[in-house]
Amino acid sequence: MTISRIVTAETLDTLSEMDPDAQRARRDLRRVHRVMCTRSILCRAFKELVASHQLARPLKILELGAGDGTLMLGVAQVLKPPWLDVELTLLDRQSLIKTETIAKFADIGWKAGPHVTDALDWASTDDLILNDAKAKWDLIVVNLFLHHFEGVELASLLQAISMRTNLLFACEPKRAWIPLLGSHLIGAIGANKVTREDAVLSVRAGFRGAELSALWPSNFVEWRLKEYSTNLFSHCFSAERLKAINAN
Ligand SMILES: C[S@@+](CC[C@H](N)C(=O)[O-])C[C@H]1O[C@@H](n2cnc3c(N)ncnc32)[C@H](O)[C@@H]1O
Predict the structure, then answer these.
(1) Given this model, what pLDDT does residue 80 score?
(2) CA-CA distance, 146 to 162, in Å (whole number)?
(3) Measuring from atom 1 of ligand 1, which residue has the nearest CA?
(4) Whose CA is nearest to atom 13 of ligand 1?
(5) Of 92, 115, 150, 236, which is best to mutate to test ligand 1, by the most ligand atoms within 8 angstroms of its C-beta?
(6) How far apart are CA 69 and CA 116, in angstroms?
(7) Computed from CA positions of residues 11, 170, 159, 4, in that sequence, does the dihedral angle turn out positive or negative?
(8) What is the pLDDT of residue 53?
(9) 78 alpha carbon to ligand 1 midpoint, in Å?
(10) Which of 36, 85, 141, 208 has an alpha carbon within 20 to 30 A of 237's alpha carbon?
(11) Domain range 11-241, its CATH number among 3.90.870.10, 3.60.140.10, 3.90.1150.10, 3.40.50.150
């Protein structure tokens, strides 16, 4: 029996940056990533996606719903050279990126900066929408982000992403029984109440099968789509524009 997709507002999204429960929940997220092996999933996907395209440098990467940026910092620290000369924009509607985090990116040759805005506003900003002749980003990455959305909002995000990038990689919760069981047991890693509740909601709002591929807008461009489950808890989706456009 499959689990129906239900999208419910998560508690973390309703708390301010300074709320102690929110701060603790964001620290929990780092432990959750260790259990989910998120960093290695992202590193593997980045290497595969970027290696198969001849992209000019600097490589322009955007993360939507980037949180405090530490997940991507961990990815950058593993990739290191030859992944130099990267310009990374960390977009989130909350201001969560510490200056130390930006400095650590700089140590490994990544020029990182925050962009505090709502991703739905980003998606609907016409002046950023570029046509097929010029993509703005080489790679857009989302992690535990798309599952917050459904219907028109999800469609508008995917539309904006497809108009502005050569490559997308998404890593989302897998909507299945084992992840759901795992989400109920997340207290075992010391997660607080916010994380315990949000973990269950995230799995119920997660993805399975080819759900994201079915929603991907082609915009008359040829894309290579891959959608797969990996490890116990993650559901991944990648989209590659087959004729990459220089983002610079
Ligand atoms: C579960 S956290 C994931 C953070 C990070 N990607 C990670 O995996 O560690 C989801 C993030 O999406 C952000 N977010 C949720 N809705 C958003 C929106 N409409 N626009 C921008 N950011 C949003 C939240 O502030 C939060 O930082």
Answers:
(1) 80
(2) 14
(3) 144
(4) 65
(5) 92
(6) 12
(7) negative
(8) 78
(9) 22
(10) 85
(11) 3.40.50.150
CB of residue 119 inside a 6 A radius of ligand 1: yes
Contacts of residue 68, Cβ cutoff 8 Å, sequence gap at least 6: 26, 96, 97, 98, 101
Measured CA to CA in angstroms, residue 218 lies from 84, 141, 224, 233 at distances of: 31, 18, 10, 28
Ligand 1 lined by 114 (C-beta under 6 Å): no
Q: How far apart are CA 222 and CA 181, in angstroms?
A: 38
Pairing of strands 165-173, 223-230: unpaired
| CB environment 125-159: b (16+ within 10 A), e (fewer) | eeeeeeeeeebbbbbbbbbbbbbbbeeeebebbbb
Ligand 1 pocket test, candidate residues 13, 147, 158, 233, most atoms within 8 A of CB: 13
Q: Amino acid identity of 80?
A: K
Residue nearest to atom 4 of ligand 1 (CA): 67
Those residues with Cβ within 8 angstroms of residue 217's Cβ, 6 or more apart along the chain or in another chain: 155, 158, 159, 162
pLDDT of residue 132: 47
CA 107 to chain centre: 23
Flag residues of the chain having pLDDT under 70: 126-135, 244-248
Kind of pairing between the strands at 165-173 and 234-241: antiparallel
Q: Which of 178, 235, 202 is nearest to 38 (CA)?
A: 235
The Å distance, Cα 96 to ligand 1 centre, comes to: 10
pLDDT value for 150: 98
Q: Is the CB of residue 61 below 6 angstroms from any atom belonging to ligand 1?
A: no
